[in-house]
Amino acid sequence: MLAPRFDGDADKKAAGLEWISFCQGFRLTAPEIIEAYTMALKKELKIFDENKAYKSSEYEGEFIKVYPNLSLITAGEILKAYIEHKRIDKQLERGKNMIEKFLNPPIPETKEQRKERHLKLWEQLKYSILENKKCTHAFLFYEALVKKGAFKNFVGNEAAQTVVIKQKMHRILVIESENKKTIFNRNEIFHLKLLCKSKDYVLPDVIDFALNRLKGMAIVEVKNDLVYNHVKKQIKKINDESENRQSEKS
Q1: Exposure pattern of 43-67 as b/e (b: 16+ CB <10 Å)?
Q2: How many Å apart are CA 7 and CA 19, to the nearest integer?
Q3: If I label 112, which of 19, 35, 168, 233 is the partner at 20 to 30 A Cα–Cα?
Q4: Residue 155: is its pLDDT beyond 60?
């Protein structure tokens, strides 16, 4: 498929689907694939050679040539080079962070500071509830509340946990389907939705990474909801008791 010639719309569609399927194997999002091709067009990506050190400033390789077709060979070269480019960027960033930490070592947080930070987050949670706003860090208090006896029915019921987490997974996928910027690609969303709908569905191995990521996101959101609603009930209970006492006095 170096320079395909299409006899009709059917051939174009088939080639397009083949190209999409091929690209999905690289586990990149649609925006990343677009960025990879944009970089290749700007001659910012060189053909990746596994036998040589690939560094943009040192590796004397050829820049990838992009042709106006759906060549799988070109796609492979572009996406491999892009993945390596991202890997090196991350290594450089980690290196900079390590040097920064070495030159300016972080000051260990004291017990009082941890307590103060914890209290600040707790107050922010209560404020969000009173203002009827979302709070994305409520889950941080989940373990502490469990130790105090909260969520007994949920913690002791694995079947209920599975159902709630699966529902949350499906909800995340629905939102993902509606968003332009997504964490999961279409293929992953398709298979993960089927898994959420049917307990007997066998997920392809290539989707395992996406499944673990989705499940992790769902668990955090479930914990977040539990804590938020629990604290909301406690605040309401305290307010109701306060109002009752005021009524009795008057």
Answers
A1: eebbebeeeeebeeeeeeeeebebe
A2: 17
A3: 233
A4: yes
Q: How many CB atoms lie within 10 A of CB 192?
A: 24
Separation CA 167–CA 241 (nearest Å): 35
Q: Which residue has the tokens 């596994």?
A: 50
Q: What is the mean pLDDT of the chain?
A: 80
SS3 of residue 50 by DSSP: coil
Query: What's the rounded Cα separation, in Å, for the pair 185 and 33?
Result: 11
Q: CA-CA distance, 215 to 98, in Å (whole number)?
A: 31
Please answer whether residues 29 and 67 qualify as being in contact, where contact means their C-beta atoms are separated by less than 8 angstroms: no
Measured distance CA(250)–CA(243) in Å, rounded: 11
Q: For residue 67, what are the CA distances in angstroms to 18, 28, 40, 60, 145?
A: 17, 21, 10, 22, 59
pLDDT category at 173 given cuts 50, 70, 90 is: very high
pLDDT tens-digit readout, 91-117: 667 777 777 776 777 778 888 998 999
